[in-house]
Design a protein that fits this description.
single chain; 311 residues; alpha/beta; Quinone Oxidoreductase, Chain A, domain 1; Rossmann fold; 7-stranded mixed β-sheet; 6-stranded parallel β-sheet; 15 strands
């Protein structure tokens, strides 16, 4: 079968060639891949640092070619969206059935391929905040792939959503996705009223400033590190007096918390099918353009998600 593999001598560290077909375990379905999406973490870290000859990729959507031998998961012919630690960027993928979501017939598989890491992380990060109905939720890095899903899902959950972005030109899009407020820069974060929870996707000084917005008993979930910078808290920031007590910082990584993610992916795909969740695909092309897509992601020229279709 054809697949994109890690090749550090090739443009973008990727080459399209022939590899052996995967051999599914009993609890895995064999999926014919239609489309897959790229994540910034893959483009910036997983591909440049990957082992030569391996097939990368976390997110893919397609159709079940062969159901799992143990009887679990969807039947052959079912449209699906899948998550895995690797192997998505190929014509065929073997996937644990617990990591497969069913997709309603007729749904654009390219659109739903954008869901697993970005929307799955946003959904489970928001759950970590606890009940958000009627509460204030801040999303930093809101203009990125995960951020746009977090804004939509927080609004759907009944939160008052504050979207923080470094790019003022994204304000109208973020409001259309459900943000009640849009702030930019350090002065924007400093101006907001206390919040119940933060989905933090930037790291560095932005994480520190976002933590300072938390009300007592609030939680910040650190899910991204787009700034590439470390965090420095001034002495006294972590004191619990003066109305700042019992504030929590939690870290999160979806691939270490993916049990049962198939159920979440099915629900997210149903929202896309009904037009109730916008995957915000900002770049789409044939998989032969993978190097172009990864370069655009690293340069932050993609607004939302990048999707590649398997020709």
């Amino acid at each position: 079968m054809r697949a994109l593999t890690i090749d550090h001598s090739a443009s973008g560290h990727l080459a399209l060639g022939e590899v052996p077909e995967p051999q599914p375990a009993a609890h895995q379905a064999l999926v014919r891949v239609h489309s897959f999406s790229l994540n910034h973490g893959e483009a910036a870290h997983a591909i440049p640092g990957g082992e030569a000859g391996t097939v990368p990729g976390w997110d893919a959507a397609g159709v079940v070619l062969r159901a799992a031998a143990d009887g679990s998961g969807p039947a052959a012919g079912t449209p699906v969206v899948t998550l895995g630690a690797n192997g998505a960027w190929a014509e065929l993928r073997a996937v644990d059935t617990d990591w497969i979501g069913a997709v309603p017939e007729g749904t654009d598989l390219g659109a739903v391929s954008a869901l697993p890491v970005a929307a799955g992380s946003a959904l489970r990060g928001l759950r970590r905040l606890g009940p958000i109905l009627g509460r204030r939720v801040l999303v930093t890095g809101a203009g990125g792939g995960v951020g746009r899903f977090a804004v939509q899902l927080a609004a759907r959950g009944g939160a008052h959503v504050i979207a923080a972005t470094s790019d003022p030109s994204k304000a109208d899009v973020l409001r259309a996705l459900g943000a009640d407020e849009v702030v930019t820069g350090p002065e924007g974060l400093a101006s907001i009223e206390p919040v119940h929870g933060v989905i933090e996707l930037v790291g560095g000084s932005e994480l520190v400033a976002a933590y300072d917005t938390l009300a007592p008993h609030g939680t910040l979930v650190a899910m991204g590190h787009a700034s590439g910078a470390g965090e420095h808290f001034e002495f006294g920031t972590l004191f619990g007096n003066e109305g700042r007590h019992n504030r929590t910082i939690a870290t999160y990584f979806l691939l270490d918390d993916a049990a049962g993610i198939g159920t979440d992916l099915s629900w997210l795909a149903s929202l896309v099918a009904r037009g109730e969740l916008d995957p915000q695909v900002g770049w789409r092309g044939d998989w032969s353009r993978a190097a172009e897509a990864t370069e655009a992601l690293i340069a932050r020229r993609v607004r939302g998600k990048a999707v590649l279709d398997v020709s």
